[in-house]
Structure formats: structure tokens, C-alpha cells
From TrEMBL:
<dbReference type="Pfam" id="PF05977">
    <property type="entry name" value="MFS_3"/>
</dbReference>
<keyword id="KW-0812">Transmembrane</keyword>
<feature type="transmembrane region" description="Helical">
    <location>
        <begin position="62"/>
        <end position="82"/>
    </location>
</feature>
<keyword id="KW-1003">Cell membrane</keyword>
<feature type="transmembrane region" description="Helical">
    <location>
        <begin position="367"/>
        <end position="389"/>
    </location>
</feature>
<feature type="transmembrane region" description="Helical">
    <location>
        <begin position="250"/>
        <end position="270"/>
    </location>
</feature>
<dbReference type="GO" id="GO:0005886">
    <property type="term" value="C:plasma membrane"/>
</dbReference>
<dbReference type="InterPro" id="IPR036259">
    <property type="entry name" value="MFS_trans_sf"/>
</dbReference>
<feature type="transmembrane region" description="Helical">
    <location>
        <begin position="189"/>
        <end position="209"/>
    </location>
</feature>
<feature type="transmembrane region" description="Helical">
    <location>
        <begin position="276"/>
        <end position="294"/>
    </location>
</feature>
<dbReference type="InterPro" id="IPR010290">
    <property type="entry name" value="TM_effector"/>
</dbReference>
<feature type="transmembrane region" description="Helical">
    <location>
        <begin position="306"/>
        <end position="326"/>
    </location>
</feature>
<keyword id="KW-1133">Transmembrane helix</keyword>
<protein>
    <submittedName>
        <fullName>Predicted arabinose efflux permease, MFS family</fullName>
    </submittedName>
</protein>
<keyword id="KW-0472">Membrane</keyword>
<keyword id="KW-0813">Transport</keyword>
<feature type="transmembrane region" description="Helical">
    <location>
        <begin position="94"/>
        <end position="115"/>
    </location>
</feature>
Length: 551
């Protein structure tokens, strides 16, 4: 299938209307989507085969639940690093490297499994290595979405990506379970599944190798260092209330609903007395429901707001956890799991969309890395807790406790609204005034103090302070480490806004990071200024003590 030519911009496709399948008309996105679907199919086959292999190696509910932890924990540790590297380095090369890492990890696991040299801890170790690659890959993989489709198609694109993953989830577990069940030896069947998963990464690598990438945001300044990039990403999240709301809701939801995923194999084996194929069908039921939701989400979004979708999905999953705990009849649990998959995808797709639309281009991968870290952190910590409770009491008590926790925290989580109001305009602002050219020995010299003096009519003081404090978040998100506004004690019409940057180059980066929405906030402040000419701006560098001169 041909890739999009390098001179064809994905941001200006020929008349694509926002619809559920509109992004698939863009050749580059379509190639990526197909390759990703094949790779996800291999991943879900491996998830089933690996978890079932663990049940054949040990009867410990904790070790079985740790398979979910091994899959989730790398993102908890590496999410910020992955986002920082994806915002600094070329995303195409990063993706090729980490796809190769995952291919190699699974290939070695397949070889060890065929040879019979596999133990519970070795299986956990290679699952962990595989998911190190996944953790480092995912922020860059999701951050390239705005490079492939127009911004107005991002919600449909997120839904199609969810449909890709959940199509694989619907089919992959059953195929993986069938392959394991087809062999008398669980090791042999699992080994073939691992080998097929290794091969599935090749298609993604081929698409990436042939992609002629044109980044949407490319700084004219030197690249940030890793540590500085992580700090600026954390600073953005700290001063972005919409981002904080998305992260908080993702953590609460995944922490409690993780019990469904981490204990499903235990319920299948010990309560329902099913084998590998039965477990694959149960896991596939979640995937079928998720696929249905992913294809119907565009219609659902037109009828219900994001917060209603999440609240209804949460209440339904409370019921699912209770059914898994107290009802041990497969023909009842299967349809319940189908709808649970729909609720899961509706929630996670909505939260993912809120992060994609809520972050400007310069910090997209770091925002997504933080989101994935929060999401998988909830999964990892929840899986450990619910597995521990199941091992030391019973699966029934563990699932009931997670249902109770999900229900009790719903009113608190629902207070943090997401995707309210118009979609933010994160188009980079084009400065009309050139940056000042200070006399500096080193652009990393600092700290830098920027001082802006406004003349404000006394009858507009309240209006000004409201507007200037809205600008505070912009300054801090874009790189300021301190901010304040002060009123002159002798001339109360003079107000002085002051913010501190770590260095001159950080100040220049903050100018690059200003978006159209940020500029509108700044314009509201400047519109109240009543002095002759624009507000007086000065740039000052910290005066370090001179070294003593030896006589």
C-alpha cells in the first residue's frame, strides 16, 4: 500500500468530513493503522498465551496478577522519560529503535520457551523487558497522530486507534488461547504465539522506515536536555488544570477497574473451571465490546458529553466487578464482559482525546507520557493490590472491594470535568516583535528576570487583576519558574508583572511555546493598559558575585 508522498500535507486532505472513518482516507494514517492492528493482534495473542503459561507454571494468584504489573510498571517509571525523548529527538527514528527492541525481546522469549528454559520469574522478566519497549514507544506513537490527520479529526482518530487495538483484543485472545490449547505442551503453544508476535512488529517497522516525516513543531533553538525537558513537561502539567483533571480521572478509574484484567485469568481457571481457550473467549469478550464502542463513539459523543460517558461507564463497571465476584456462570459473565469492554474503551478513548486536544505541539509527547504513566501506574498498583487481597483472602472479596472503591470515589472524580467548552487553539503564535538581543556570554546564562510595567486606570483595577492572574498559568506552563504581580505603593495605577526564567534560552523557548489561545489571554491584559505606548518591558540577568582577585 503506497505511503503518502513527502510533499502531501496530512493537515490539508482533500475535503475529509469529520466522521467515524474519515481518517482512513488518508493513505499514511491508513498504512499505520493496518500495521498497528496486526501488531496489536500479536500483542493480545501474547497477553493471553503469557498469562496462561504463568497459570501452568504456578498456582499463585499474586504471581499471575503480577503479569499485569510487569506489563504496566515500565510506563510508571519511564513515561516521563519516554515523553521527553519523543519531544526532543526524531520520533520516526525513536519508534524504529523501540519497535526493534520489542521484536528482539519477544524473539528471545519465544526461543527460551521452545527450549523449555522458562520459569515464572523469567516470564515476568521478559514481559517487563517487552513493556519497557512499549513504554518508550507509546508517547511518540500517539504524539505523531497530529502529524497524520487534521486536528478536527483527532477524536475520530483516537476512536479508530482504539478500534484497532480492540479489534485485535476481540480476536487475539481467542486465537492465542486456541494456539496454546492446540498443543499438548503449553510451552510449545505459547512459544509459537510469542514467535508470531515478534514477526508482527516487522510491519510497523516497514511503515516507519518508509515514512517521510515533516514535523508540525520544530524549534529553531538548540534541543532541550533530557532533565530540563522532563522538568518543563512536569511544569506544564502542574499548571494546566484540564490536564490534571484528565490524569486524576485516569488514575482513579484504572486503579479499581484493573481488578477485571488482573483477576480474569484466576476467575476463568478457579471459579469457572475453564482452560486456555475459555480464558481467551472471556478476554475476547472484552475486546468485542471495546470494538463496538470504538466504532460507535462518534455517535455517542454527539449525544452525551464526556463527563456523562465516563460516569455511566464507571457505574457499569461497578456492576461488572460484582458479577465477576458472585456469579460463576459463563453465559452470564460473557455478555457482561462485552459491555464492560465497551465501557472501558468509551472511558479511555475519551480521556486520551482530552489529553491529545489539551496539549500544544511542543509538549504533546510529554503530556501523553504523563498520561500513560498515570494510566499504567493505576493498572500496576491496582493489580498488585487486588492480587494481594485475592491471595490472602479470596477472589470474591478482592473483586467486591474494588467495586466498592470505584463506587465510593465516583462523586469525587466527577467533580473534575474534562473536555468542557470549545477546543483550545494551540496554533503556535507568530510573534510580530523580534526577540531582544542581550549582551550575553552564554545563552544558558541566568536566571533571567522579565519585568513588565502596566498603567491601569483605577476603575479597571479589578478587571486587570483578574486578567493578569489568568496570564500567570500561561507564563508558568511555558517555562517560568516564578511569577508575581505587584502594585506600586506610591503610584497605585502602576502594576509590575515579574516572572523568572532559568536562562535566556528558556525565555526564548517560552516565546516559541506561546499559542494563539495564550496570546488572547495576554491581549486581554494589554488591552487594559492605558499608558502612552505599550507596557514597558525590561529583561534582567542575575548579577553573580565576581570572583575575588588575588593580589
Amino acid at each position: 500500500m503506497p505511503l503518502e508522498s513527502p510533499d502531501t500535507s496530512p493537515l490539508t486532505p482533500p475535503s475529509i468530513q469529520p466522521s467515524g472513518f474519515g481518517p482512513l482516507r488518508i493513505p499514511l494514517f491508513r498504512d499505520r493503522w493496518i500495521a498497528s492492528t496486526v501488531s496489536s493482534l500479536g500483542t493480545w495473542m501474547q497477553d493471553t498465551a503469557g498469562t496462561w503459561l504463568m497459570t501452568s507454571l504456578t498456582a499463585s494468584p499474586l504471581l499471575i496478577a503480577l503479569m499485569q504489573t510487569a506489563a504496566s510498571l515500565p510506563v510508571l517509571f519511564l513515561g516521563l522519560l519516554a515523553g521527553a525523548t519523543a519531544d526532543i529527538f526524531d520520533r520516526r527514528r525513536l519508534l524504529i529503535f523501540w519497535q526493534g527492541w520489542m521484536l528482539g525481546s519477544v524473539a528471545i522469549l519465544a526461543l527460551l520457551t521452545f527450549l523449555g528454559h522458562i520459569s515464572p520469574w523469567a516470564l515476568l522478566a521478559f514481559t517487563f523487558l517487552l513493556n519497557i519497549g512499549s513504554a518508550m514507544n507509546n508517547p511518540a506513537w500517539q504524539a505523531i497522530v497530529p502529524e497524520l490527520v487534521p486536528r478536527e479529526l483527532i477524536p475520530d482518530t483516537v476512536s479508530l486507534n482504539a478500534a484497532s487495538n480492540n479489534l485485535a483484543r476481540a480476536v487475539g485472545p481467542a486465537i492465542g488461547g486456541l494456539m496454546v490449547a492446540a498443543f499438548k505442551n503449553t510451552d510449545t503453544g505459547s512459544g509459537f504465539v510469542f514467535l508470531l508476535n515478534a514477526l508482527s512488529f516487522a510491519g510497523v517497522i516497514w511503515v516507519l522506515v518508509n515514512w517521510k516525516r515533516t514535523p508540525l513543531f520544530k524549534s529553531a533553538l538548540p534541543s532541550e536536555r533530557i532533565a530540563g525537558s522532563i522538568r518543563s513537561g512536569l511544569r506544564y502539567v502542574r499548571y494546566s488544570p484540564p490536564m490534571q483533571a484528565s490524569l486524576l480521572r485516569a488514575f482513579i478509574y484504572t486503579f479499581f477497574v484493573s481488578a477485571v484484567w488482573s483477576l480474569l485469568a484466576v476467575v476463568a481457571a478457579q471459579d469457572l473451571k475453564q482452560g486456555a481457550l475459555g480464558y481467551g473467549i472471556l478476554n475476547g469478550s472484552l475486546g468485542i465490546g471495546a470494538l463496538i464502542a470504538a466504532t460507535q463513539l462518534p455517535k455517542i459523543r454527539r449525544r452525551f458529553d464526556a463527563n456523562t460517558i465516563i460516569a455511566v461507564s464507571t457505574l457499569y463497571n461497578v456492576c461488572v466487578l460484582l458479577v465477576m465476584a458472585w456469579v460463576h456462570t459463563p453465559w452470564i459473565i460473557i455478555p457482561v464482559l462485552v459491555l464492560s469492554g465497551s465501557a472501558w474503551t468509551s472511558t479511555m478513548s475519551t480521556l486520551n482525546t482530552s489529553v491529545q486536544l489539551g496539549a500544544p505541539g511542543w509538549v504533546t509527547a510529554r503530556a501523553l507520557g504523563t498520561y500513560l504513566m498515570t494510566f499504567q501506574g493505576g493498572m500496576a498498583l491496582g493489580s498488585v493490590l487486588w492480587g494481594f487481597v485475592a491471595e490472602h483472602s479470596s477472589t470474591r472479596i478482592s473483586l467486591t472491594a474494588s467495586a466498592a472503591g470505584l463506587l465510593v470515589t465516583l462523586p469525587f472524580a466527577h467533580r473534575f470535568k474534562i473536555l468542557q467548552g470549545p477546543t483550545p487553539d494551540h496554533t503556535p503564535y507568530q510573534w510580530k516583535r523580534p526577540a531582544p538581543e542581550p549582551v550575553l556570554n552564554d545563552p544558558d546564562e541566568g536566571p533571567i528576570r522579565v519585568s513588565i510595567v502596566y498603567t491601569v486606570p483605577l476603575d479597571r483595577y479589578d478587571e486587570f487583576t483578574h486578567a493578569i492572574h489568568a496570564l500567570r498559568g500561561v507564563r508558568l506552563r511555558d517555562g517560568a519558574i516564578r511569577w508575581g504581580v505587584f502594585r506600586d505603593a506610591l503610584r497605585p495605577e502602576l502594576l509590575n508583572e515579574t516572572f523568572i526564567m532559568e536562562s535566556w534560552i528558556d525565555y526564548l523557548r517560552s516565546r516559541e511555546r506561546m499559542t494563539a489561545d495564550d496570546q488572547r489571554i495576554r491581549d486581554r491584559v494589554w488591552a487594559i493598559h492605558a499608558g502612552d505606548g505599550p507596557p514597558v518591558t525590561s529583561h534582567q540577568i542575575y548579577a553573580k558575585e565576581a570572583h575575588a582577585v588575588k593580589e
